[in-house]
Amino acid sequence: MAVQRDHQIVETPTEARQAEPGPSVLALLAVSTGLAVLILGVVWFVFFRT
Question: Is the overall model pTM greater than 0.70, yes or no?
Fold first, then answer.
């Protein structure tokens, strides 16, 4: 909980971020990057194979 000290509000880093740190952002980045590579691979295979 934020406390007021010498007319300033003091918060922990988690409170200042307004979020809980977690692996969900890393998982989202990994999945989206993997899907982008897969889609680009399919597009390359369909249009540019010789």
Answer: no
Tokens 């922990």 belong to residue: 12
State whether the Cα torsion 30-35-36-40 is positive or negative. Answer: positive
What digits encode the pLDDT tens for the residues 12-43?
A: 887 787 766 677 888 999 999 999 999 999 99
Is the distance from CB of 4 to CB of 10 less than 8 angstroms?
Answer: yes
The conformational region for residue 13 under phi > 0 = left, psi -120 to 50 = alpha, else beta, is alpha
* Residues belonging to the chain: 50
